[in-house]
Amino acid sequence: MSTLSKSATAGVFWSFVDSAGTRAARFVLNVLLARLLLPEQFGLIGAVTIFVSTATMLAESGVGSALVQKQNPRAEEIRALFFVNLLFGVALSLLLCLCSPLVASLYQAPELREMTPWMAFVVFLSSVSFVPAALMERELSFRPLAVASLLAVLLSGGLGLALAFCGYGVWALVWQQVAGTGIRTLMVVALCPDRGRFLRGEVRLKAVKGYMRYSGHMLFAGGLNSIFENAYGLVVGRLFGLDSLGLYFRAKAMYELPSQVLSRVAIRVMFPLHSRLQDDVEALRESVGGALRSLCFVSFPMTIGLIVVAEPLVVLLLTEKWGGMVIFLQLFCLAGALYPFHLVNLNVLKALGRSDLFLRIEIAKKVLSALALSITWMFGIEAIIWGQISVSVLSLFVNAHYAKTLLGYSLSVQFAETLPSGLVSLIMGLSLVLLKGQLDIDHVITVPVLVAAGGTIYIGLAAALRLKAFVELLSSCR
Fold it and tell me: What single string gives the DSSP state of each residue in 87-144?
């Protein structure tokens, strides 16, 4: 096995520990917090998080992707990028503090006026970690990132639970996020072996000039994506209340746990790996195809299984007070079924350094999103999510266009290669629906039975039919 292959294998493992471990731990902690707190309190933290996440993305300014994509960044370039991130973090944190009265007025929630300045601190803390994290990612060094993320989630989660149990309400969620970001940032900087490259030496801002085109395109594209993603939450909270916003965000978080954990693991390894293959089109196309088959093989059954088990799972984990989120969760799963295709196709452009095309695609998709939201908002939250499903389907054709042009990897080929996993997943899903109808037992038993049955049926069929994706995954594990 080559050095690059070994690095990629280790990267997959530690990236999975980071993404799956931290998200699983965060999910468990949020389940416990949801049992102690109310949907409206989660709606409050979700309302301010909309602005915090957008500001954090702007503070990053595309630097992480630019550093990973660049073949041999110099020390002076790294220092300049770190300083630029820091300046953006400070400026955006202060701006968010100044806008706290507007945030409170927008949602008609006076509590947000006091919460927003504290949450703005998250933006500054995050900006400190962008460059060291990118340096470790470009070297496929995911182990220290996994350690930092896991400890941050566990320690901050423990703090949040303690505060919630003591009656601090929504402030338990505020301090959990601030503490978690602070702990992770300190550990990422401390564990980065190249920290001397950005902490010591003269800062020359002109050194970022070579990154401006790529990072500028990624910043604009990321800004559009963040604004439009958060626009849905903004509309839900403003029109339907913070209680509905809490249900909306909890449903989205539960859907994202299985689907985006896998996707995040894949992209963190695929991006630096595919960037190294950017001069070998045939090798890159083969690697992209293998990544898509593997992602769909794992994500399809998880998505379909979650749709079937949604109602008993929500009631079991969060209690009946969160029952209103079940339909939102099922619809989010439908919207996310095509996520692996979006992820892989867009990663091709990033790896090839075509941030201009990436930006062009994002603009086209945001036009579709704006059109969908302008039509669906008046019909309720379910209609809004149906609009997101429609945009996901239409955007797939936009995303796949350049993969066909640059790699000869058309959407029809992508569908053909992943169709077996989709069909086997549908058979599994239909089997679970029939089994669920026969079960008249407590949710404590129903959920594990359905999960175990689904896994057994899917793996059994995949092995019996010798699906290509299944065989490839087995081979990669040897």
Answer: HHHHHHHHHHHHTHHHHHHHHT-THHHHHHHHHHHHHHHHHHHHHHHHHHHHTT--HH
Q: How confident is the model at residue 293, as a pLDDT?
A: 85
Rounded to 10 degrees, the C-alpha dihedral 98/101/107/110 comes to 130
User: How far is residue 137's CA from residue 176's CA, in Å, rounded to a whole number?
Assistant: 26
Summary mean pLDDT of the chain: 81
Give the residue with greater pLDDT, 171 vs 287. 171
Residue 321's closest CA among 249, 381, 247, 380?
247
Per the CB < 8 A criterion, the answer to whether 39 and 247 are in contact is yes
CA-based end-to-end distance of the chain: 11
Burial grade of 108 (CB within 10 A; 0-12, 13-18, 19 or more): exposed
156, 177 in Cβ contact below 8 A?
A: yes
- Over 70: is that where the pLDDT of 224 sits? no
Tokens of 367: 């036009």
The answer to whether the CB of 136 falls within 8 A of the CB of 112 is: no
- For residue range 429-466, list pLDDT tens digits in order: 999 999 988 877 777 888 899 999 999 999 999 999 98
Statement: residue 4 has pLDDT above 50: no
CA torsion 55-57-62-63 (nearest 10°) is 80
Q: What angle do CA 154, 254, 469 make, to 5 degrees?
A: 100
Under 8 Å between Cβ of 44 and 38: no
d(CA 19, CA 421): 23
Q: pLDDT tier at 1 (50, 70, 90 boundaries)?
A: very low
Side-chain-side CA neighbours of residue 365 (13 Å): 31
Residues 6+ apart with CB under 8 A from 157: 25, 26, 29, 176, 180
Length of the chain: 478
Virtual CA dihedral for 458, 464, 469, 472, nearest 10 degrees?
A: 130
Alpha-carbon span 442 to 440, nearest angstrom: 7
CB of 384 within 8 A of CB of 377? yes
Do residues 77 and 148 lie in contact, with contact meaning Cβ atoms separated by under 8 Å?
no
- Single pTM value for the model: 0.72
Domain borders along the chain are 1-196+206-239, 277-478
